[in-house]
Batch of 2 targets.
Target 1
Amino acid sequence: MSTLLKGAPVASAINEKMKETVAILREQSIVPTLAIVRVGERPDDLSYERGAMKRCASVGVEVRNVVFPEDVSKEEFYDGIDKLNKDDSVHGILVFRPVPKHLDNDRVRNAIVPEKDVDGCTDGSLAGVFTNTELGFTPCTAQAVMEVLSYYDIDCTGKEAAVIGRSLVVGRPLAMLLMHKNATVTVCHTRTKDVAKHTKEADILVVCSGQMESFGEEYVRPGQTVLDVGISWNEEKQKLCGDVKFDEVSPIVDAITPVPGGIGSVTTSVLVSHVVESAKRMADRS
């Protein structure tokens, strides 16, 4: 049986480090603050909001909830974002997406200034990922993968890595992060021929295809580290599953993240750590 790369100890380590930084900032009368912007009452948004608020409270980060009705006008919504951008007491802005069509998702994500884009969704933040600079922040799920690799001392230098998926949320930024750690990266997608050939050559395999339990034993070999980013309910809605067929793959590979309890459990801690880092950067600048 492979080693389980659980997310809980990774999140705990991030949280402890945050508490130390928050204590230092509060001594300077700086209170790291996250503004959560929600349009409407979507159940998944409300669930994530509760989780983020709980995580923030546990490390001393304050939350400001900004809620708009679903029929909010463009003017009112974007004026609200602009005020948060200009508010020095707000260090991070998280806007739940998708938003209603009349607000335009692409315009929404780029309405946030990169230095407060703690979710890593703006073009500015993505540019920072590609240039390896502190322009904005890394997308949280991609950063969570790197945090797991770091916590478990899995060195990327000289390793072959395969990333299954090319989204701007995970796949493409993650490929850049792995290259920054000196891995040689192959990105596979829906037009890739013979995906299994690429995945079996990889030392580190990250599956973020968004297709539930679509990767089984035929894609892996002994000696690999597999990180499963996917999370979906099965057809009976009784079990959370990843993109990897865990029961098939785990007996073969050296190490694997579980679902649930793997990458997803680290993501919220990464988001909150970005708020703390934003507050620290603003303090350093002033």
Target 2
Amino acid sequence: MIEIKNLSKSFHDNVVLDGINLTINKGDVVGIIGPSGTGKSTLLRCINQLEVPEQGEVVLDGKTIQLNKKNRKEILELRKTTGMVFQRFNLFEKKTAIENVMEGLLVVQKKSKTEAKKIAEEELERVGMAAWANHYPKHLSGGQQQRVAIARALAMKPKLLLLDEPTSALDPELVGEVLETIRKVAAEGFTMLLVSHEMNFVRHVSNRVIFLDKGKIVEDGSPKEVFDNPKNQRTREFFAKMNLMNQPEYVI
């Protein structure tokens, strides 16, 4: 079980996260949805210490880590047990796919090169990228690069996988291959926090959905509860606008 307690983050006078409390059970796939600018990505970045909040803590395996303190040792320990998949892949351009996956194993987990290579090969196979192991990012499509990024995160054997809009930078025709990879990973029992605008995907891959608005969790339930019978008025307004946008502008 992972707990996020009283997490708050502001940028100047703009409160982005306002006292977030969240308990995540092992194997949960939690979809995080809501309007743009409401703190979804910031939540993930604070958990992984890429942003430092004003207050908040994470409890992982019974150990409490204060997120608002730049303790290098604690940050390293936290990153050893979490994996992050970014919007724009963040691969090292001068390293091959397999070298990108090996990097964290060598630098963070201090594994031998032989062990790191074996793990990297297994994870590239898992995401369907074994045949491109020796290719550089510039020779891969956006979807392929994102699958390498997912393999890199999985190689660390994370207790919590954080996915921040993993398909937002992709051409529409490449989205499917990445979503299918994430679906397979979720089915294997990884604990995940998934920020995405792909509503249909969130609905089907998640076992739990939270709706963020103005830095607060205003809805939290099963996909069926949140999508079919939202309790909060703001959630209902959001889905009404989404449905309106999905309707054709005209009919011939």
